[in-house]
Each structure stands twice: as structure tokens, then as C-alpha cells.
Amino acid sequence: MDIKFSNYQVIEGGICAVKGFQAAGVHCGIRKNKSKLDLGAVLSDVPCHAAGCYTQNKVKGAPIIIDQKNLKNGIAQAIIVNSGNANTCNVDGEEKAWKMCELAAEAMKVKPEDVIVSSTGVIGEILPIEPIQEHIPELVDQLEESGHLNAAKAIMTTDTIPKEFAIEFMVHGVPCHIGGMAKGSGMIHPNMATLLCFLSSDVNISVPMLQKALKYVVDRTYNMISVDGDTSTNDTLTIMTNCKAGNPEITEENEDYEAFLNGLYVVLQHFSKVLAADGEGATKLIECVVTHAPTESLAQAVAKSVITSSLFKAAVFGEDANWGRILCAIGYTEGDFDINKISVKLANHTKDILVCKNGRGVEFIEEQANFILSGDEVRIIVNMHDGDQQATAWGCDLTYEYVKINGEYRS
Asked: Is the distance from CB of 32 to CB of 294 less than 8 angstroms?
């Protein structure tokens, strides 16, 4: 399906940009630093159609087990989420996750099975339920349309900035909206969705089509980013739509479905780039665009090989135009293709230079390459000269700071 980047407008409000949604965030005490918010909530004024994607890691956070049960009927109305503790690999993990649903449901006057629960932070440490139980009344009292930023801050761990985004777009001539918040900086190499991401919408769409659209877009956005090659245990991406926009219900693949798909793509592509750029210790966003590939899956595989290469990521950090590392990464990608057809360009927003043609190096001006690599966004353009399919992946450079952050993570 052809994804179009048009007919939308960026708006304020994050996950509360959709009318009928409120959010809040407080410090409850899971995190030692009292200046860090660590408990967040989102509430819709009506039950919503809902869908989700989760980590494919065999080790799954307890909240994911609960969410998969709660969302089996495709209905949700609220979110409760903590940072500072992943509630993963704990004997009482599912019990605690369900307790969070019950506590939130009681305070927000919704059904516990209609609550999405999530946790992020250190793996293998028992989640204390007492601070959550004590502060949920305060959290719910603070729910309001302007609470979206505090909710976004409450899900941060090593993130350097809160991540929010929202757009308005048209479906069947009706203004519709998608808003959301996300977190993620390290342990990012998804196989489903990635990190934590919560979306709201007002598009009238059936649950099966909502899930189908989410999976399609996730495979082309969140599944195309990597910071460090580690797939998290708690990756969760959910969307709730209150279906209040006024468009005819989307129940099949048609123009309205494509319009929703494009809107969802805009939002998740934005988050993908922001998350990759905010990778732990990162100084540069790396974008790899693969064009003229024989299949989309091969284009995706090649793009991900490039942005996950530790050698190339280190070269970008050092601003070294070592293009041979790009070709090396392409070469170990699984699939049937002719390396002798490959060309590679280094680019930024205004300039590109050819460094490889027909699988061989070409002369280029080193200073021009260094200038491109000195910016905070570096683009790699790979032309396979063997078809009409393409894909894009996003990553970041590998720095000394990444090792420092993860060497001291628990302290």
C-alpha cells in the first residue's frame, strides 16, 4: 500500500489531543529521585475500541500477560503505567499487574479488565505495590486534558526528553485525530512494536481493522528502528479510539482505511525517528533508505543491517566516512541479491555524495563526506538497482556514553 505524507496538520496535546481523553503523572516513590515522575494514567470518557502489539522476547513483562487478556475483546478505557521497575521475572508479577488494574479501575470508575497496564525500568526487581496504591487517588484527582505532558514524563527512564505527538487529518471528509506519547532510549531492537507507546484516536474503525492497521504500520516504522540490538521484555504499543469523529465505521480496506493508515504512519514514523535520535548516549540520528529492491522484505532487511552495524555506528560517531562498513553490513544481509549492483550515497538534508557504485568504491571529496557526517542527522541511501520496492530504517551512533549509561544503570 502506498503511504502518503500529506493532508495532515500537527497539533498540540499529545495523547489528550483527542477530545474525551485526560491524563496525569505523579511521583509515587518507585524511583528514588523525587523530581522524577514515575506513575502515569490516561482515561477516556467512554470505552474505546483498542488494539496492541507487544514484544516477541520470550521473557515478557507481567503487564503484557495481563494486557493480552484484557484486550482480547478489543475494548479498553484507561491506562495505568509506572517507570523505575519493569515488573518482569517476578513470582508475583502478574498479581501486581492485575492489582494495578483493579486500583486504577476503582479510582477511575471503570472496569479493571478495561485497563491497560504497563511498567518500565529495571528487570528482576520486585515491584512494590504500596506506593502505587497510596498515590493512585492523587493521580486520578489530577486527570485533565492538560495532563498529557506529566503523563509522558512519568513513563521516561533514560530518555532525555518527553515524547509526544499528535495530528489532525481527514477521513471521509471528517476531521479526525491521533495523539500519543512514547518512551524509549536504550534496549531498543524491536520485533513487534517497541518500547512503550500509547495512542489515542477518535476515528470510527472496527477492532479487527484497527489491529490490522496497527500491525501494518508497526512493521514499517517501529520494527525498523534499533539503538543497541537488544529487544526489550516490556515492549508495548496500544491504541484506543473512542470512535467519536463522525466518519462512517471503517470495516474494510477502502479509501477511509487508507486515510487512517496514512495518519497512523505519520505518527509512528515521527516517534520512530525521535526514539532513535534519543538513543542512549546518541549524538546523531542515522536514517538508511533502501530503494529499487526486488522485495519490500529485502529492502527492510538491508536497511536494518546498516543501522544496526556496530562498526558503522561507531564510524558515524567518529565522523569517519568509512563506507566499506556499510557495504559489509549489506553483504551479510540474508537474501538473494547482487552486491555488484549496489550503490551507496552519504547524505544530509541539503547534500549527498556517491561513495560506492556497482559494489565498488568511487572517488569522493573526503571533506564533503566529513561535513555530512558532522551533522546531527546522517542519511544513507542504498540503491539496489533490482526492482521497485523500498524501505527506511532508523538508528543512532554508538558512543562512549552508551557504555557508561548501561554500566551504571541500576545505580
From this structure: no
CA gap 223, 191 in Å, rounded: 6
Which of 194, 233, 241, 392 is the catalytic position?
194
CA 249, CA 241: separation in Å to the nearest integer? 12
194 is catalytic: yes
Q: How far apart are CA 127 and CA 290, in angstroms?
A: 43
d(CA 41, CA 80): 5
Whether residue 381 contacts residue 344, with contact meaning beta carbons closer than 8 Å, is answered with: yes
Q: How confident is the model at residue 270 (pLDDT cuts 50, 70, 90)?
A: very high
**Alpha carbon separation from 390 to 142, 154, 289 (Å, rounded):** 45, 37, 7
Q: What is the pLDDT of residue 278?
A: 84
* Contact in structure between 16 and 179 (CB atoms under 8 Å): yes
Which 3 state secondary structure label does DSSP give 40? strand
SS3 322: coil
Residue 117 CA, distance from chain mean position: 17
Nearest to 231 by CA among 77, 55, 361, 401: 55
Confidence label for 271 from pLDDT (cuts 50, 70 and 90): very high
Helix axis angle for 93-108 and 130-141, nearest 10°, is 30
- Is residue 140 within a helix (H) or strand (E), and if so which, with residue range? helix 130-141
